[in-house]
Amino acid sequence: MNLENKENTSLENVENATALNPKALLAFEEEETKETEIDLVDMFFALFDKLHIIILCTLVGALLLNAFSYFFIKPTYQSTSKIYVVSASKDSVIDFSDINVGTSLTLDYEQLILSYPVLSKVSDSLSLNYTMKDLQSMISIENPSDTRILNITVTSTDPKEAMDIANKVMDISIDYLPDTMGSNTPNVAERARLADQKSGPSYTKYTMIGAVIGLILSCAVIIARYLMDDTIHSAEDMEKYFGVAPLSVIPENESLDDGEEETSQKRKRKKV
């Protein structure tokens, strides 16, 4: 009980002294800020000391993800067919002052091209084994700004399949859209061609992602080990954590260690 009373009394005295003396409070806050800054500096040097490990982990991460993208991700190919929208109705040509192709007509075409009636006919015609959701994810519709062109782009791991699907979607859409929208038949602007280059994956992108992952993980591990390390490494650490300056520091003597090793070896020889 007496110890608790003494501790409470000492805490009250510190609080009262701080309240009566604003300079003491300011000095205390400055000391805390200084300690925080020192910790950040120490953390920086901890990272700097392990710079070779950070660089190694960054390179390993980049190489691993690059190899993963090269060996385990199938390359993809894209083919694009183009439709030219002639008119919005059967009796008139599109008037840009009345109809915004980019926002209204194009959105209608996009929804209808990706609709079940169109894609089911495409799937049946080409004998595809994709679900409707998978087939929709392979097709993208784009309307370049200030044009009446619709780009139908298909992405597939088979370049011929990508070309066939793009052309078949265009052909069926040209027959289906006029009846559904009550408009004139769109024209074929360009048929899809066989892709001669891969569209993905991007090895550069995967390499950069791997490098970033390796960098972050290595820094995180080093910082975690630094924060969890409560070992006293120097006299400065003793004074910093305990507020006590050591009276003396005994340096490490390598010759003593060598002498101990020689003595132990001699003892082993005698036993033998």
UniProtKB/TrEMBL annotation:
Pfam families: Wzz (PF02706). Keywords: Cell membrane, Membrane, Transmembrane, Transmembrane helix. Residues 37-126 form the Polysaccharide chain length determinant N-terminal domain. The chain crosses the membrane at residues 51-73, 206-228. InterPro entries: Bact_polysacc_biosynth/exp (IPR050445), LPS_length_determ_N (IPR003856). GO terms for cellular component: plasma membrane. GO terms for molecular function: protein tyrosine kinase activity. It is a multi-pass membrane protein. Residues 252-272 are annotated as: Disordered. The keyword Transmembrane applies. Its main location: membrane. It is found in: Cell membrane. Belongs to the CpsC/CapA family. This is Capsular polysaccharide biosynthesis protein. It comes from Ruminococcus bovis.
